[in-house]
Write a structure and sequence with these properties.
Elements (H helix, E strand, L loop, with lengths): L10 E2 L11 H6 L15 H20 L5 H12 L1 H10 L9 H9 L3 E6 L13 E5 L2 H13 L3 E5 L2 E5 L3 H13 L1 H5 L10 H10 L1
Parallel strand pairs: 1-4
Antiparallel strand pairs: 2-3, 3-5, 4-5
Helix pairs in contact: 2-3, 2-5, 2-7, 3-4, 5-7
């Protein structure tokens, strides 16, 4: 099974008060403290698509599972059977994001929307969020497009200090939103890159060598 959470879906945001002016250094080093979240860099649409495909397979298996949280059960089984394979999957496919929100996080990053937080939530106590959530800072143009996709896919968004917290009742909803962002790739690519994109890749390489 895939858990669903009792959360009111609302869409409260103000395009005029979005946080703007992020630099490459802000994005690389972290511009807000959220549980040691690491910058996803500049993933390609192909990398986002690969993540979403793998995530879809997990969700399909989880939906057929008798476990209260099918994804967690599958991950525990995989880790017990092949610890190295588990680590490689989480690192190179999901970028150490939780399965269920990793696809959306990668898709947003491929759309050049800065992400700063993600949590799938769950039935145990090691998750931070009470329901699936991804934190992001879109520029106004990308925000307008993303807001439409959020509504069409039954997800919600709250805005705090110019940052967006995108959420859903289940990771199925978040995964669906990630797929919608991928489908809209041409619309996102048609927009000018935000300023923080320039120099980010080089800066991340420098930080990795420190």
């Amino acid at each position: 099974m895939i858990p669903e959470f009792d959360v009111d879906i609302r869409r409260g945001y103000d395009l005029e008060t979005l946080r703007t002016g992020l630099s490459a250094e802000d994005v690389a080093r972290g511009f807000t403290d959220h549980h040691e979240y690491e910058c996803l860099g500049l993933p390609s649409w192909e990398e986002a698509a690969e993540c979403l495909t793998e995530e879809a397979a997990f969700l399909e298996r989880a939906g057929r599972s008798d476990a209260p949280d099918g994804v967690e059960a599958i991950l525990h089984e995989l880790q017990d059977a092949d610890d190295v394979g588990y680590a490689e999957l989480m690192a190179y496919t999901f970028y150490w994001n939780d399965v269920g929100v990793a696809g959306l996080s990668l898709a947003l990053s491929a759309a050049r929307i800065a992400t700063f937080y993600s949590c799938s939530s769950g039935l145990d106590e090691h998750h931070h969020a009470e329901y699936p959530m991804v934190g992001a800072v879109p520029d106004p143009e990308r925000a307008s497009l993303l807001a439409r996709l959020i509504e069409e896919n039954g997800c919600g968004v709250d805005q705090e200090y110019g940052r967006w917290y995108v959420y859903g009742r289940s990771i199925k909803d978040m995964h669906g939103l990630g797929k919608a962002v991928l489908v809209a790739r041409d619309a996102f690519d048609a927009l000018p890159h935000p300023l923080w994109v320039e120099g980010l890749a080089d800066l991340l390489e420098e930080l990795a060598d420190e």
